[in-house]
Design a protein that fits this description.
Distance between the termini: 21 Å
Helix content: 10-25%
Strand content: 35-45%
CATH superfamily: Hotdog Thioesterase
CATH architecture: Roll
Strand order of the largest sheet: 1-2-6-7-8-5
Number of domains: 1
CATH class: Alpha Beta
CATH topology: Thiol Ester Dehydrase, Chain A
Structural class: alpha+beta
Order of helices and strands: EEEEHEEEE
Length: 136
């Protein structure tokens, strides 16, 4: 992917947590994230659980932005919000400074509502997984 993440999502520092969109198709996307030791979603050297959920939501936003660019639109996806989180299991809090791989797959879409599954891994090990419902 060639677009900078800031061109794809409306989030800005200190809340822009996804670093790059590395794969994107009509129903699937993969992004990366990496948190420094001194960033606020890090406590005692590990990434907080809520940040993992937000990274999944930002990956969906980045995919929507990329798909919009491919359709000829410019700018980030403007509207959207995380509506609910379900069956989300945190297996481990990843350490700061490690690259996280955030993969989302669209399961269902009804108008502006999108249900996705998310899988977040660190060093090829799943650290969190679950479902998100988003309004986009």
């Amino acid at each position: 992917m060639s677009a900078a993440i800031e061109e794809l999502i409306p989030h800005r520092a200190p809340m822009c947590w996804v670093n790059a969109l590395v794969e994107c198709s009509a129903t699937h996307a993969v992004a990366t994230a990496c948190f420094g030791e001194n960033e606020f979603p890090v406590s005692n050297g590990t990434v907080l659980e809520t940040a993992l959920v937000e990274c999944a939501a930002q990956t969906v936003a980045a995919a929507l932005g990329q798909r919009g660019r491919e359709a000829g639109n410019s700018g980030a996806a403007a509207n959207g919000m995380l509506v609910s989180v379900s069956n989300f299991k945190i297996h481990a809090r990843p350490p700061a400074g490690k690259i996280l791989r955030v993969e989302v797959r669209e399961v269902r879409r009804l108008g502006p509502m999108i249900m996705v599954t998310a899988d977040i891994s660190c060093e090829a090990r799943t650290v969190a997984a679950g479902e998100l419902l988003l309004y986009a």
